Amino acid sequence: MFEADTASQALGIQIVDLAAGRATTTMTVVETMVNGHGITHGGYIFLLADTTFALACNSDGQRAVAARADIRYIRPTHAGEILTAKATMRARFGRNGIYDVTVCAADGTPVAEFRGDSRITPRH
């Protein structure tokens, strides 16, 4: 799935770890990701978390898509920072799943918390 994800790859997102129900990725914030306040645009942080969520909920080979997602931003980040996102499955019931993703700065300080609900869909 990630090999075909040109959006995530164009942003330099890299997979660090991938196993059943979990994933870890990294992304370096570059100047083009900074907003008018001089901090990382929240959409890029969301995209990193969402990509990591997608990897985790598709890690068992079933096709899963997001049914819902939200994020809480904790502190700002800046160009040059390396962000790490870690996704973990919290529950799976039927075709549904709940995943938490924590995005951290290089020193391990959380910068955002993301929760996503997945839905397994048939392959076409």
UniProtKB/TrEMBL annotation:
Q: Per its UniProt record, what InterPro entries does this chain match?
A: Acyl-CoA_thioesterase_PaaI, HotDog_dom_sf, PaaD, PAAI_dom, Thioestr_dom
State the source organism's domain of life: Bacteria
Keywords for this entry?
A: Hydrolase
Domain Thioesterase: residue ranges? 37-110
Return the EC number.
Answer: 3.1.2.-
Q: Which Gene3D superfamilies match?
A: Hotdog Thioesterase (3.10.129.10)
Name by which UniProt lists this protein: Hydroxyphenylacetyl-CoA thioesterase PaaI
Protein's gene: paaI
Q: Which organism is it from?
A: Nocardia africana
What GO terms are given for molecular function? hydrolase activity
Q: Which CDD domains match?
A: PaaI_thioesterase
